[in-house]
């Protein structure tokens, strides 16, 4: 039985969802206020773009994490939680403690990180005429 891991994952999933929701609504509110306030101040506008991209990057990271949590939950259902999905070796328990959503061992993770990354950040459509 791995119900402890599962409930940890579910808690983590909920926290991640809450955080994404919070950041998304922050971005929506923020943008509307800034369109009104920004005026001609290009320094502020540039800071806004920077802030926005930073927030988007955080959301992206959280969404990746969420996808990882979903995979880990599925693995828990199949009884393969804690097993690296790439090489099939057990994942270091310390690593699972630290990152319960991980589905790869540290060695495979390093290999993955060395691969060239696709650009995942999608810019939300903006109404600019
Ligand atoms: Zn591995």
What would you say this structure looks like, in words?
The chain is mainly α and 129 residues long. It has one domain (3-114): Up-down Bundle (Four Helix Bundle (Hemerythrin (Met), subunit A)). The chain has 4 helices and no strands. Helix 1 runs antiparallel to helix 2. The radius of gyration is 19 Å and the shape is elongated. The structure holds zinc ion (ZN). Zinc ion is lined by residues 84, 86-87, 89, 104-105, 107-108.
Topology of helices and strands:
Blueprint (H helix, E strand, L loop, with lengths): L2 H36 L3 H36 L15 H6 L7 H9 L15
This protein binds zinc ion.
Zinc ion binds next to helix 4.
Short recap of the structure:
This protein has 129 residues and is an all-alpha fold. It is built from four helices and no strands. It is elongated and about 55 Å long.
Classify the beta-strand content into a percent band. under 5%
Number of strands: 0
The value of Rg in angstroms is 19 Å
Q: How many structural domains? A: 1
Label the CATH architecture: Up-down Bundle
Give the distinct bound molecules.
Answer: zinc ion
**What is the structural class?**
mainly alpha
Compute the average pLDDT: 83
The end-to-end span amounts to 57 Å
Total DSSP helices: 4
Assign the CATH topology: Four Helix Bundle (Hemerythrin (Met), subunit A)
Write the CATH homologous superfamily.
Answer: DksA, coiled-coil domain
């Amino acid at each position: 039985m791995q119900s402890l891991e599962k409930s940890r994952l579910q808690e983590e999933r909920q926290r991640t969802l809450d955080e994404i929701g919070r950041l998304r609504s922050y971005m929506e509110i923020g943008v509307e206020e800034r369109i009104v306030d920004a005026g001609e101040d290009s320094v502020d506008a540039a800071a806004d773009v920077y802030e926005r991209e930073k927030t988007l990057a955080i959301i992206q990271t959280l969404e990746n994490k969420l996808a990882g949590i979903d995979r880990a939950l599925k693995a828990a259902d199949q009884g393969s939680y804690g097993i690296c999905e790439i090489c099939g070796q057990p994942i270091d328990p310390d690593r699972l403690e630290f990152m319960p959503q991980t589905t790869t061992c540290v060695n495979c993770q390093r290999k993955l990180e060395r691969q060239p990354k696709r650009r995942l950040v999608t810019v939300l459509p903006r109404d600019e005429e």
